[in-house]
């Protein structure tokens, strides 16, 4: 039985930063430093995310980690210096995106939450997601997730999905790329057995096909750091 609509009263929005990836394409840099701690513009990639979330009003953060995770905990601490509280969801081995979210559920609570990858850099305004969080909490039957989509980067020209009148579609005339930022209701992830290694896609497409995922196109600065060259380009731009 599904909970009644409007059950959750949101007092504080929470966010999960995904920081468990191995960063294979960034080796040998990631042999001794976890990918989220690689520096760009004078600070670690994950620190940019923490600060953007804090600026957006998110004060309760969870960070998952696997490879060299102790270094991430040491670098970020309890979050006090950023004006937030940070708790950690360690994994070994890494459980991929959906599996990692499922494992972190006890720390994220019963209300919808934001998920963002720790290896992107963006000026996205996370405060703008508050109405999306509240809408999903009020009526998860109609909408179980919200995706932030970006224009297709050169390394991913085919995109991931389409956006039609505010709803995400698997196929469409103009495909966009998932920007590694989303809002999710926790209930679907409760069906994932603990310790399951599972990617977010294609698992999440079933809810897209049901018409239960909203979306938006973000056209501002956005970088997904996957290679040493991409990291160097971002570093140069931020230092300018």
Task: Describe this protein's structure.
Strands 1, 4, 5, 6, 8, 9, 10, 11 and 12 form a nine-stranded mixed beta sheet that branches. The chain has seven helices and 13 strands. The protein has helices at residues 29-32, 45-55, 69-76, 96-108, 130-138, 205-209, 228-239; strands at 14-19, 39-40, 43-44, 60-65, 85-90, 113-117, 120-122, 145-150, 161-164, 167-169, 175-184, 213-218, 222-224. The protein has a single domain (14-239), classed as Spore Coat Polysaccharide Biosynthesis Protein SpsA, Chain A, CATH 3.90.550.10. With 240 residues, it is an alpha/beta fold.
- Per CATH, the architecture is Alpha-Beta Complex
Q: Work out the strand percent.
A: 25-35%
Shape: globular
**Main β-sheet, in a few words?**
9 strands, mixed
Tell me the number of helical segments per DSSP (H or I, 4 or more residues long): 7
Termini separation: 54 Å
Q: Which structural category fits the helices and strands?
A: alpha/beta
Low-confidence stretches: 1-11
- The counted number of beta strands is 13
The H-and-E topology, N to C, reads as: EHEEHEHEHEEHEEEEHEEH
Q: Structurally, how many domains make up the residues? A: 1
Blueprint (SSEs and pairs):
Blueprint (H helix, E strand, L loop, with lengths): L13 E6 L9 H4 L6 E2 L2 E2 H11 L4 E6 L3 H8 L8 E6 L5 H13 L4 E5 L2 E3 L7 H9 L6 E6 L10 E4 L2 E3 L5 E10 L20 H5 L3 E6 L3 E3 L3 H12 L1
Parallel strand pairs: 1-4, 1-6, 4-5, 8-12
Antiparallel strand pairs: 2-3, 6-11, 7-13, 8-11, 9-10, 9-11
